[in-house]
Amino acid sequence: FSILATTSANRGTIEAVGESQLRIWGTWDNAGGEIVARDDATVVMQHGDHATRITGGVLRTTGNGKIRGDGAATIEDVTVEGTLHIQRHSGLHMANTITNDGHINQGAYDGHGPATVYVDSALTFLGDGTLAIGYANEIKMRAWPDHNAVVVNGPDHTIISHGAYIGENPNYYGDQRLEFVNEGTIRCQDSLYRNEFRTAGAGFVNRGTVVIEPSPSF
Hints:
- This protein is mainly β.
- It is built from no helices and 24 strands.
- It has a 10-stranded parallel beta sheet with strand order 1-4-7-10-12-14-16-19-22-24, with no helix packed on it. Strands 15-17-20-23-21-18 form a 6-stranded parallel beta barrel.
- The chain is globular, with a radius of gyration of 17 Å.
- The model has no long low-confidence stretch (mean pLDDT about 85).
């Protein structure tokens, strides 16, 4: 089943159940609404001419349900309950506040990247959930920015890095690095790749806890 619309508004519940698959395109005003994948259902935020952009509301999975971004999809000011997948050879744009009360899997169980989070503006992770980032996967600014974006890991939120790259070095397009503020917990775990924070501006500010576990460098 697909919902193809340039602009949509959801104030209730859109639920995929069983082994169904729901594909959505276009701009979604989801404030007050929820999009749910239950059982073995899958919800796919599509790319293409009208890439999905979801603002507000809840993305929820139960059982083996999956919600995943595809290509140029964007989420902003949403709450994640359950699991959100950011898959290899794909990515997901994020902006403003992501309240993660579940688990965001950024290529952590699929091995080598790229599974990329593109920061469209200042980005804050809140909630008591976990963002797990697989090796050589990245959190970085979108192309051609006019400033360094600030990423905040909120007080109760945990980032687990299995060799992730946060920000990037100056390149052909200029200085596209991030400023990163940690108020929660960062765990750098064993990986074939180094855990790297490539930050600019105010750089890396730690007000929380950073744990360096066996083998990785930081």
